[in-house]
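Researcher: For the record, we're logging two predictions in this thread. I'll number them. Prediction 1 follows.
Model: Prediction 1, sequence and structure:
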Amino acid sequence: MSANRGEFSSRFGFIMAAAGSAVGLGNIWGFPTQTASNGGAAFVLAYLVLAFCLAYPAFMAELVIGRYGRANAVASLKKMSNKKWQHQFAFIIGFGGILCAALILSFYGIIAGWMMSYTLEPITTLIGINEASKWLTSQSTVPSLIFTTLFMGLTIYIIRSGVENGIEKWSKRLMPMLILLLICLIIYVMTLEGASEGLNAYLNPDFSKLIEPQLLISALGQAFFSLSLGTSVMIIYGSYISKKENLVTLGAQVTLIDVSIAFLAGLLVIPAMYVAQAQGLQIFSAEGNLISGPDLVFTILPSLFNGMGFIGSFVALAFFALMSIAALTSSISMLEAPVSYVVERFNLPRNKATLITSLLILSISILIILNMDSLFGFVVTLATEYGQPIIGMFCCIFIGWIWHRSKIIEELKQGYEELEQGLFWKIWPWYIKFICPLCISFVFLNSVL
């Protein structure tokens, strides 16, 4: 590994950074919304099973590629290639993942900017600047441009400092803060009228719904998206892991933290929805469908906070601060994927590469904001429903069918000498070769059809 690449200084540092990448708006915003739209506890159960049985094996594939290659996603995959077509396939996977990460960050930054503006709104309301409050929550062009730029500025500040002093340092700070805020909010919401009904809907599954194809496909898609699969992020994070670490254990720990925080987010948002319903807000249609869907966090929850009176402003401040922190822990990983490529491919200083890459992504964000109706949904669909499943599937095919089995064993045994005697090695190779590509293709076909 080149001296200027950097490395995570500790196991805890990697776990916080990788979990921070996985734990974002997809967990705290997307997971509860998906749960409410897909049968409540039945979706939760399916998600937990699929996250460990299918998403974890694919997650491990990206970590192994990264640590073996000790370089950016494109270079790492090319190191495993022996033939010309394999080199070309490696470039498609690696660079495709980098582009996917950049596109996700371009719209993710806009949503994160809204979260930041909604964080400030309770403050302006408390001090009586009502016009400023309306402006902050309008999601109009000017505030969107300002707060998207501000959010990208925070992401740039962290990434330009490198692996140990940037990504690892801030992940260690932000992740515990996120978990503490989440737990405090859960405790408060559970004291409100209607929360017990929401808790019941969240924790008591209707097992008949588990056989519904749409529920299973949605749960699998959520598991893959929340773990940042198909974006080259975990390949680059894997390249910063010490050879002494047990990758199998590390991957399991990150997956456990990811699903645990998603579960905690459901414990907050689902009961909060039923609290809002107890206060007279309509949450579900006559057919039982969730009315707000993805807009839940910007419509129903602010109405709930307003109905709490004076204390509601402080709850709203804590909630949207939580969302902003979650967004930041993910954005730094999404920016690191293209930055690492630019640094190593063009031999540029990290500061310069970070600035150039960020400005290019920010320009896409600005273009989306100026053409919100036509571009926002298009970019979201392109990156998450097409890009991530395809790249994730190709990555599994690459490690399952192209990379030599002996090389995989050699890499995984560093830090885990008993690999071949463990349950992981008895299952993972054929999982990654057959099951994961098949299941990811189901997610992709569902998106298309």
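Researcher: Logged. Prediction 2.
Model: Prediction 2, sequence and structure:
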Amino acid sequence: MKGNVLTPEVKENRQAGHDIDPVFLNRWSPRSYKTDPVSDEVLSRLFEAARWAPSGSNEQPWRFIVARTQEDKERFYPFIAEGNRIWCEKAPVLVLLLSKTISSRGTALRSHALDAGAAWGYLALEATRQGLVTHAMGGFDPQKAREDLGIPSEYEPQIVIAIGYQGVKEELPEALQEREKPSTRQPLESLVFEGVFSQK
């Protein structure tokens, strides 16, 4: 599986400051996709991983709307920003991640977006283990998605996710080819503070 050892492109662009599993570095967000389909079994493994994400009071507020057929994907295209459509239309799977904003007790669920984000993280890591790539998009119209897909008011659209097998960067528009590599991260000391908040 792809997540077990660092891929050459990751080795070239990323280096962990501490010893962690390679899957965390191998997960990145390519824009070039092959049109090869993702099997039901492999796709189910991604959602199974997401199912086991942590959530406040075990509410499990995440929901996924999956588009794999051309008909279903064409329902997604109108609410996805043009800059994302340029590349994501080749992806064999598009997913809209929702979070339920009301708890099972009928109260506002404060952690709904955080919990849905945890489910997305689990899905993305399992996708890497399965030899797939994923790319989350915030560039979409949530209200249009709500209208086009019949989403009830208590669910909040969060991100659109492209899922598939990585293609070659040369198939992307030239401006995107330059960006088609794993990104780095801020140093740990700028993210973790001891005792009180700090700006460095």
